[in-house]
Q: What sequence folds into this?
């Protein structure tokens, strides 16, 4: 019978990422997926996605969907998985219960596991007693020696129970690709719970079975799993499975070197996407959470990472999560993307901020396939003005260099879509300018701009007409600061000529007049 459970020697690299759909995919999990993916692709191997959803109460379809969509958005594409299939499925644990039952029965039949009927009260009393004696708490093995008849009677009477694995009290050692040689004294561990019943294994057993069945060669995961590894090695030995190779990634830490939490920025990948981070920036950022290429190079595409990544260059110590670095990388990738693409990605932020709304028409094209909505244009909600795609591109073009994340675009550019700006008149003051000086500067600007023909309205002509006036004032700021502040209502913004060109002559004159009326 043992021969049925043996795996033939394999040379192919096969790794897996095995998330539980009990929450949205976060940076920690996506980094594990990335490192598995890079290792597999570099070695011409296979990267498998396996959903560990046996926690029925906490597993939700919305989390399952989020994991799949977030990994796809990041460009971490699995070769086998629940949505793409493969030769070693099913790839959701809830669909593998028959497989688990076979192995759990084997462990019981071979005497490597047993039913435990201890209640929570029993276990707590044992724990308290051991602590009172200065001993490390572990299961006493009380149910290990129950007779077959006692076990059967308890099962017939449906007495609550779990299934425990008999932990061999020996030293277990293994070589971790990242951490090096590790050794554990298993005499310090009691017999561990491995299943709720014959069909519902816990993580520690299900992972071993699935890794064997799916021919996984390397297990790459977070170092919080290191205590599980010697236990899983003992289970592998009991089931006569070959050992896999392990690589445990360093923990991700906040700036204060404490465990990463939401206050440090440990939000879901989908939230980073919503905030306007680009997938290539997140990938570039995540790979440096533990990996050091040994060079000064900071920017890596996915293809270059596949060529240069190695587990041997992953550090042992914790990796620091630095949001400023993520923002730097994201700003770089925003600047690298085409204006057309950044505009496409930015438009939803304008819509969500209620600045614009898309105007569609419905067409039957082709008739056999029913109605299809065709985007005609955009309209500013507050002013009712038509906003062309070209105008949106111009707005984004003067802020593209400033963006750290796309969500910033709506706050930076809101003045383009407003009927009237509301700001304190002190915003218009440059250094020690008096109210009368500001009013005169605004009225002069209004006069100069009103004389520019509509057909000659451009940034270049605005500069040609206004800069000489600014120079004559002796301090250019006395002219340009009130102009920019009047047009934008902001302490900082893009240059006044770029802004004015996009706003148009009529709106520029209107805002200059409204600003001068404050004095």
A:
């Amino acid at each position: 019978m043992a021969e049925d459970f043996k795996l033939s020697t394999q040379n192919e690299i096969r790794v897996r990422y095995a998330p539980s759909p009990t929450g949205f995919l976060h940076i920690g999990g996506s980094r594990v997926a990335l490192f598995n993916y890079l290792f597999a692709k570099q070695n011409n191997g296979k990267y498998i996605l396996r959903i560990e959803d046996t926690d029925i109460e906490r597993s939700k379809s919305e989390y399952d969907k989020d994991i799949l969509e977030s990994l796809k958005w990041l460009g971490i594409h699995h070769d086998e998985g629940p949505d793409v299939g493969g030769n070693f499925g099913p790839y959701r644990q809830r669909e593998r219960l028959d497989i688990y039952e076979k192995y759990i029965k084997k462990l019981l039949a071979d005497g490597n596991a047993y039913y435990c009927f201890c209640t929570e009260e029993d276990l707590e009393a044992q724990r308290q007693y051991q602590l009172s004696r200065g001993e490390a708490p572990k299961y006493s093995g009380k149910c290990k020696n129950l007779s077959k008849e006692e076990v059967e009677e308890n099962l017939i009477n449906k007495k609550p129970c779990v299934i425990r694995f008999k932990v061999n009290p020996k030293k277990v050692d293994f070589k971790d690709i990242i951490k090096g040689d590790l050794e554990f004294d298993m005499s310090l561990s009691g017999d561990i719970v491995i299943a709720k019943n014959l069909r519902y294994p816990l993580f520690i057993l299900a992972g071993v079975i699935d890794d064997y069945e799916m021919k996984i060669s390397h297990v790459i995961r977070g170092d919080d799993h290191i205590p599980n590894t010697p236990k899983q090695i003992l289970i592998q030995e009991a089931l006569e499975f070959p050992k896999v190779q392990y690589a445990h990634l360093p923990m991700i830490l906040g700036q204060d070197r404490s465990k990463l939490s939401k206050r440090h920025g440990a939000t879901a990948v989908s939230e980073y996407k919503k905030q306007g981070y680009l997938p290539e920036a997140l990938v570039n950022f995540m790979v440096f959470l533990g990996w050091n290429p040994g060079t000064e190079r900071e920017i890596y595409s996915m293809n270059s990472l596949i060529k240069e990544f190695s587990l041997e260059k992953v550090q042992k110590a914790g990796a620091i999560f630095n949001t400023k670095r993520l923002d730097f990388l994201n700003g770089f990738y925003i600047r690298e993307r085409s204006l057309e693409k950044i505009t496409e990605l930015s438009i939803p932020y304008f819509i969500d901020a209620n600045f614009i709304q898309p105007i569609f028409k419905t067409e039957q094209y082709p008739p056999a396939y029913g109605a299809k909505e065709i985007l005609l244009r955009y309209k500013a909600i507050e002013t009712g003005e038509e906003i062309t795609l070209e105008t949106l591109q111009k707005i984004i073009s003067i802020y593209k260099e400033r963006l750290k994340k796309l969500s910033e675009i709506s706050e930076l550019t809101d003045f383009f879509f407003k009927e009237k700006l509301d700001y304190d008149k002190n915003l218009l003051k440059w250094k020690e300018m008096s109210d009368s000086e500001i009013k005169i500067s605004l009225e002069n600007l209004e006069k100069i701009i009103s004389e520019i023909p509509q057909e000659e309205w451009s940034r270049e002509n605005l500069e040609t007409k206004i800069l000489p006036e600014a120079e004559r004032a002796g301090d250019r700021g006395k002219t340009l600061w009130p102009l920019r502040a009047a047009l934008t209502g902001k302490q900082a913004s893009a240059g006044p000529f770029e802004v004015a060109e996009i706003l148009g002559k009529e709106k520029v004159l209107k805002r200059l007049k409204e600003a001068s009326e404050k004095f």
Observations:
- The chain is about 40% helix and 15% strand.
- The CA atoms of residues 168 and 489 lie 73 Å apart.
